[in-house]
Queue: 3 jobs
Job 1
Amino acid sequence: MKQVNVDVHYVTRLEGHGNIVLNARDGKIDELKWEVIESPRLFEAMLLGRYYEDVPYIASRICGICSIAHTTASIQAIEAAFDVKLSEQTLLLRKLLYYAELLESHVLHTLFLAAPDFLGVESIFQLVETHKDIVVMALNLKKLAYNLAEIIAGRKTHPLGCVVGGFVKTPDLNELKAIKKRLEAARHDFETIVKLFNTFSIPDFIRETEYIALKDPREYAFISGDIASSDAAPTPLEGYLGVTNEFCVPWSTAKYARNKRDSYMVGSLARFNLNHDQLLPQAKKAAVDLGLKAPNYNPYMITVAQVVETVHVLEDAISIIDRLASRGLKNEIPEVMVRAGRGVGAVEAPRGILFHDYTFDDKGILTKANCIIPTNQNHNNIQKDLEALAPSILNRSEDEIRLKFEMLVRAYDPCISCSTHVLKVSFKK
Amino acid sequence: MKPRVAFFDFSGCEGCQLDALNLTPEELFDLIAVVDIVNFREAMTECSEDYDIAFVEGSITRESEIPRLQKIRRQAKVLVALGACACIGGINCLKNHMSMEEALKIVYSKDAKYYDTIPARPLSAVIPVDYYVRGCPPITSELLKMVKALLLGKKPDIPNYPVCVECKMAGNVCVFERAMFCLGPVTRAGCSAICVNSGRHCWGCRGLVDEPNVNSEKEILKKHGLTVEQTLEKFKIYDTYTEAAK
């Protein structure tokens, strides 16, 4: 009789806390659970009664890793509620700021959190001994993204300059031009990353699911568009509740979601599957080089899709700075007229689609809030992936099962600090 | 043997740990030349129960977090609170203005019974804290200075004057002159007034200076057109716990 018990308490190199529990005997699984055990932070309650100006400041603190995503979704929800019109300059700067976070977060995930698994070490700190060049490159790219955000909004973690209606301080064009040179120089680093990922052996595991992401006819969408699905026609943002259908399960402090099937996936692979046609040529080439072809149903490829996205974001950031340079930057004052109403904001956070939904009274005081984070939408899909994966690897050693499970969960880049934390594989004895 | 440094997180956004990794290669290599980082869940798989210096992020919002924090305190020779949530309770304390049952019900409605939560509190409400790295988020260079001071066995130099001092040195036009509110006059400095430099006002994330003239601050805010209610709302974001503990 072979008994397998896996208990990973706090899967590490995740932004959050989660556990995986697996109990199996004679090739039969008794229990397999993806448990999220984060203390509830209750943001929807904390936002109640706040004046609209304070709302994005507080909402940013839902997650320090994707604080620009939360700030942007929050700002856009308020702008929808108050029907605020934005200048083209604001739209360009907002996207550029957004790209800073995407670059930083994807570099953090691909090189700091995921790469150690493929290189057979336990952390980026160990890579200092074995792959110093990668560590230097990763830190420099992270710093570059931080510096880009600092020029536009004062800082990256919990940005300051971006507000409802625009920016309180106009960035310095010379600083933008200077950082553009550094972005151009970083092209070489991303070629290196593509080559590096080509040497990794990505686990082969296929499970088709529903893929959900923003879609905008004009571009590869991150902060605009409707809700697209691989299984259904697009839904306007206001209809997001009909897509997410959240529900609670007793073993997890995070909510779960499902739409047309048992579960759905959000994040870079969902975006790639739905919007790959709109990637810039350099990113399309990177996808070909990495063997990523749409539609792809291997969740381990989420990390590879992130590498492709970084190439796209880098190129688009460079072209946005060119456009800002040719049109010049004006000092604009954000104009906001408060009114009673409801608004939904949605963005593609690095790890998937994120919704903020607010209602305000006529004094601009928040009376109702709902935030649905990407990781919560993925939990159910992670559970179904684990269920599909487990039978095929039950005959391997516990260490190998643990690693495969951890790598799968890590591929989703779960950001469980967003109101929740994740990961433990427990092999129960 | 090199001192062993561990990072731990409780309830918070983990932005403090993220910014702790915002180092230049030189800074990282210098750091790991003098300390062993043995526990950093956000960035490494290995974890160790044997450490000398603990940096702890987040506030305490669940019963089960209390024994976990006490265990860290027993093990660590030096315990440093990292960030506003750990130092002063942070924005998590906004929920303390309502009953926990009510807060859970607003978020989880009929499923509220699955969740447990207690009023948010800083680390010092549970265990003695040796040092504080303040801010939401903290400034990375300040964190490095703290590590350096601890390694040299020196007492870290923490400002106990208001943000206004650094704001004036930065050459900013006073926020009150721009018809906005500001908590700079009562908030502990050390941030170089980064929020005002970026076109905003001070939110008070580093907590109050030791002897803040809060009444005079409230007068200033009133003079600039804010009602008592609005003024109190501004203090709530970071000072809910401090005010309630008085």
Job 2
Amino acid sequence: MLSIWIQNAVSGVAIGLLYGLIGLGVVLFFQTTNLLNFAHISSAMLGAYLCYMFNVTLHLPFVLAMILAIILVACYGLLLKRFVYEPLAKREGGRLEFIIATMMLSVFLLNAVIVLWGGVPKPFPNVFGDPAKPLIIGSVAIQTHSLWVLAYVTVFVIALQSFFTKTMTGKSLRAVAQNQGAARLMGIDVEKMLTISFMLSTGITALAGILLAPAYFVSLDLGGGIIGIKGFAAAVVGRMNKPYVALLGGVLIGLAENFVVLYASSVYRDVITFAFLILFLVVRKKAEA
Amino acid sequence: MKKMNRKSVIMLVILAAFLAIPLVDSNQYHIYMLDRALLNAMIASGLVALTGLAGQMSLGHAAFYGIGAYASAIVTKTFGVPVIVGVISAAVLCLVIGMLLSIPSFKLSGFYLSLVTISFGNIVWTVIVNWYSLTGGSLGLLGIQPIRIAGRAITRTEFFYLAAAVLALIYFVTTRMARSYIGRGLRAVRDDEMAAETAGIDTKRLKLLVFSLSAIYAGIAGALYAHLSTFLSPESFVQAESANFVAMSVVGGIRHMLGGTIGGLVVTMIPEFLRVKGWEIYYLMGSSLAILVLVIMLPNGLAPSFEKFIDRLAGIDRKNGKRQVK
Amino acid sequence: MAILKTENLTRRFGGLVAVNNLSFEIPEGKITGLIGPNGSGKSTTINLISGVLPASSGSVEYMGKKITGFAPHMVARMGISRTYQQIRLFEKMTVLENVYVARNLMYKSNLADVLIGSKRLSSEDKANEKKAMELLELVGLADKADELPKNLPYGYRRFLEIARALATEPKLLLLDEPAAGMNRDEFMEVMDLVRRLRAMDISVLLVEHTMEFVEAVVDHVVVLNFGQKLAEGTFAQIEKDPQVIEAYLGKEEL
């Protein structure tokens, strides 16, 4: 019994960290731009497919494939800012228009992926360990994938934190997130910071997508709605302005999901996300009353 | 005065031309798509009122479309009543649920409200799929009765005129409301809710009104859809459809009275035009790209440009700064 | 006779007590100033009276009736209007519409009247539109009726807000720093407008930082510090109060 608990807890935390990573990307983006990108999750899908292409189709070493994929998706973030955000801002399109534009973009990307790679899910190479050969500790079987995720996310968070506290760019980003007007007066190139925000949030999500692929396959599910909503739910737990709380929120969702499937039925797995959402939205408002 | 009359005449000519399409084009598939387009226009019109006029987000409106559809289907199948009773039940049910959905809007707005509406849409869809005994679940609901006249089922062309009449009624109601003190109150809620409250405007009551109204429009459209198609599947009411409806209202013109109609027609028909060319694989890509480009290039939608075009035809010269209908 | 009375009015934000057991009265038909250093709870008090913020404890009594906990639109309907420190206008509506919409609470017509276009509705519309124009004339905005607020000079945006506040026919008007951000001419006009309000039998609670304004206009002053009442009296009296001077020590305005 305990061993099942531990197994579920570990895999729940691992997947949850990835939801949280997506949520972290949403929070970072929202803090600087005050906007919601409904094509956010498409970056995860693109990251996974590109990594697959570099590694499996073009036979590049995995780490290189992963890095290339993330860089490419970050460049997509740049294009997103240039061709969607800027024209809308120029024409005084507001948040609603950006939401709709990014929604359509996500449909477009989904279909583009089908055209380029076909709609059949592809298995991810076993770089994170063979799911059929978990690590056995006593009576507990732990997927090595979970351990890799823990490792990657830990390293990433440390790197991110150093970036924000020790580099000029990182500090400038934080300034822009807190007060755009004041940052501009301080001489910070706000437009450049916004571009970096776009690239950062798409890049982070691409990483999450690559790490999620072993569990969800290299498939359209990655770009579909529900994982994206989980990312948004994690961001809401993080009150839209606390990136690391969003990470934690994702973990809570991942854990809750696993235990709901364990004790109730898998039908309700996704309902958990909505329950979280509504709960935190209501609680958030009560706390501000 | 004469110029305003000229504009009305031009609009009437365009309307007449549109209404004449089924008499000229006998392709049943085309007429079916027009029928669908008119139904979508009803839903989009509700979203124009909700989001453009009152500033409230709803990214889960397919839920009302579905509730209306299944309600009418189930009521007419179970009790053998005529379609009109089914449509009315659909409207009443959507009125109530619409009022319930307005409650989160009392405390939440923008992003947070959109998340609640997305959750609402997904929950309704999950219920539809899982309540097998009532809705047939993923297998769908068959054998819904079509609308009848003179003892026979109406043709798609006749449905076209019925739907056009319903849409006209919806346009009339929405426009009347938008131009009245109620419309002004809704716009105040949109522009600054707190200031509206302290100016004596009951913002809660207005939100109740506009949420229910937009829900009723979608519910009626859903009910009509059920009897047009005689078959319902949960696939028609997924999250992507909600996004589609909002896209229609934005592409058409979120702050324009004709936005719902133009958006419903254009967005429904775009994929059809792309499908014909023999580039089948790409038509979904193409249509989403087309809408994306439209939203970016014309954030205020097609309706304002359309109206400007008509003004020019009518010789009306508006100084810049003349605002849209709202 | 007091038109408004607060009794032990308190508002907490977590650990911070923004307004602390505040009891004061606003005499009817007079202009009362509410002053105090930054953060002393002036805006919060206005928010509490207008119903925008719920009170943590204590009460607000208007014309003998307890209105604590009333929704803001109910407070407005009872006859209390307000403006905002940062000016909150309906930016996508015209100048006229901004005032016109504040007449909504006067309507007896309902949705049915709207749908059938009844005579009652059209006569109410005409009357309310006329009243809105009159208010625009009062503040000197009649010629800009079809403009958008963003095209108005800053001072006139404030006047528009005041016109809107008057549209609900209040007996008590709460003005939150009406002179903030004004140039010299606009400043004189606002002062003049506030004096005219008293002549219209409207009681005023005026939150202001500019002492010149307060001194010239008010009949009665309440001084706040740290959410509590520090002193009360005529301007001449509180001006000499040592506690008031100490609270303002270092601030140039007194």
Job 3
Amino acid sequence: MSLIASNLCLKADTEYHLNDVCFEMSKGEIYTIIGRTLAGKTTLLKTIAGLIAPDSGTLNLDGRDFGRIPVWKREVAMVYQQFINYPHLSVYENVAFPLKQRGMLKTEIHNRVMKSLLQVGLEGFEERKIQALSGGQQQRVALARSLVKEANIVLLDEPLVNLDYKLREQLREEFRNIFTAKASEDAILIYSSTDPVEAMQLGGQILVMDEGRILQQGNAKAVYENPSSAKVSQITNDPAMNLFEGTVAEGKIILSPQIQFDLPRHCQELPPEKYNFGLRAAAITLDEGGFPFTIELSEISGSETFLHLKHEHVKVVGLLDSVQNFNMGETITARFDTTHLYAFATDGTLKSSPYSGMK
Amino acid sequence: MGLLYTCLKYLAVSLWSIFVIAPFLWAISTSFKDFQSVTNGATYIPWVDFEPTLEGWRALWKSPAKGGVDIVEPFFNSIFVTCAGSLISILLGTLAAYALSRFTFKAGFIRNSDITFFFISQRIMPPVVLAIPFFIMLGKFALLDTLLGLIVVYIVLLMPIAVWIMVDFFNKVPREIDETALIDGCNPYQAFYKVVLPNSIPGIIVAGMFCLIFGWTDFFFSFILTFTEVQLLPVAIVALNSSITPWWSLSAAALVSVAPLIAVAFVVERYLSKGNLSGALK
């Protein structure tokens, strides 16, 4: 089974929500659509579900024109970022709803509902009203309702985004196991997220979206190691990959009169001109022999510290894997691990990657 | 300062309560009086100021020939016309409101908000402006002085209220609920009656309540559009106010006219204060 989108376009006034979107998705895979807010992720999911009709382009499922099938006859399930359930029904009735619509036998409905509730850890909650559940439990009900259908295509629109941090971490782990099991049942599972960490943790295939366009698609590792453009590198990293302008001249990379370093081996063949260089936050560390930077902001996140550093026009974020206190305005010295340096042309295309060398 | 503020607050609330409740108490007291008790100056407390009697109440279902005022038929006419008008208004109004809330209509410069305003604009006009056209139209269709004619007029008058309230209510029901129902296998009509409608019951009850109140308390149109064949309760009560007004029966009739609304208000009160959508979208 494969879902093929060809040249999907959707325009509202002058703004593209979907811009020439093409992809091919195969059964048994998890696809993560990653992009910033308003990138077109939800629009794409709703288009696949049949809730939105594209202005042009086609969707084909196993050679059939999927776009001609009304939404209520498509074998799709969807979980929204808001915890959408039917408040007038109990947990059991909520999960059973799509099966009742299909006119299934009561015993079959019961077996499948109980199996789904067990999968999402809600056994014993059958008679509860939706209003009596916590946010996490409500989202589990929505997930159970999407699983119970055993649909060919399962769409998950940022299902964890409205949960608190702890619960998100917990459910992410649980959901990954459920999704992996679901995908292995010959379903296509499409998950949208703004969170690069979530996308990488889910693994599978990644589609990077921005302004309605798919910028890159490939497996998670390939996209992480070789982002096709500076924009992709920003979207697929948290914190976003540091980008700074520099010039290659005389075997060196010159960012400013004080910040200059030798070309790393994978960038040796870069012609001398201007580039946008990229370095992940983890590749910038405190080092006495490094370059002088002023601390603009210091953020402690869990067991890590993010340092927002500035030197003339060069602004970067460094990541320390320990909790440390710094004063704003304090001067420190930081080292760039140039073995992890990316070089992008001024138009944003990748020119050199630490994982695959020159492009 | 705090004590003074509390005292003033309670004083204000007490005065307002007296202002609101006193007419009711006065009507209740008067309904148990007879001619003597009413004409012998101001009396208030039964068994102390006057000897209570049920004459005023008994007269309500006696025919005028037997000294009664007979409001039984107008009472049931009012119930029939108000309930029928309200039910049809709610039914049509809910459907119209759902369409206005969920679909985008464009006709020249006219948009959804203009259509909603068009509905409510019928309530903005003074009733007297509508009276003559209604009179002429009902006359043309031989519906003057008939219950059916009044029901038609009440639908025109009450549906804007239903549309206005329900559009606002449906706008608060997340569209994602409809979408989820579609994804779960409902066609658009099933999504409406299986999912959206059950979650809109509080809104429907509020709209129904307002329709009942406006329909039940209408005097103007029932007075203009009826003559001898059909009489509604407000007209029948006002008709009691003649040269020798039976204040005891008038008070009893007034209380009878208020009773259904109070009863309905008590039944639906819990829906007026809380909705049922708290679990739809957290």
